[in-house]
Design a protein that fits this description.
The protein has a domain of 88 residues. The chain contains 3 helices and 2 strands. The relative contact order is 0.11.
């Protein structure tokens, strides 16, 4: 049997830091940069179409290559944006969890057995005649 996964505050803090670092690295890559040093008017950014011209409209190989490069740039930009959103959400969610778990830890009166009673022991599929509501821990209700 595999060893159970143990999640501690230190593990969550490490994950939060990793997600924060990943978000910061993606923000750096999605930033707007000058096309040439000192040129404030010409800029390039991965999230925007590249100012790329490969020959005239009659040069079909160049036009095709420019379109292919634009498609790759667009796909990479969308993927980075999705990863940034997820990393940032996880970072802030873990920070919120860590801050609030410390604040409410003293209010928890549930025993491990009571907590375990909320976790299904079998299949996640509904059982005919079963109830969709979680069980009431002993001594906590009618």
């Amino acid at each position: 049997m595999a060893e159970p996964i143990k999640i501690s505050g230190k593990t969550l803090e490490t994950l939060r830091q990793q997600y924060g670092d990943q978000s910061a690295a993606i923000e750096t890559r999605l930033a707007v940069y000058p096309w040439a040093p000192g040129n404030v008017r010409a800029t390039v950014a991965l999230a925007e179409p590249l100012p790329l011209r490969l020959g005239g409209a009659g040069f079909t190989a160049g036009v095709g290559l420019a379109k292919a490069i634009e498609l790759v740039r667009k796909n990479i930009g969308e993927r980075l944006d999705t990863v940034w959103t997820n990393s940032d959400d996880l970072n802030w969610g873990l920070q919120f969890l860590l801050e609030n778990s410390k604040a409410v830890e003293g209010f928890n009166t549930m025993t491990a057995a009571e907590f375990e009673s909320y976790i299904p022991a079998g299949s996640a599929s509904p059982v005919p005649g079963g109830s969709a509501t979680p069980p009431v821990p002993p001594g906590k209700g009618s």
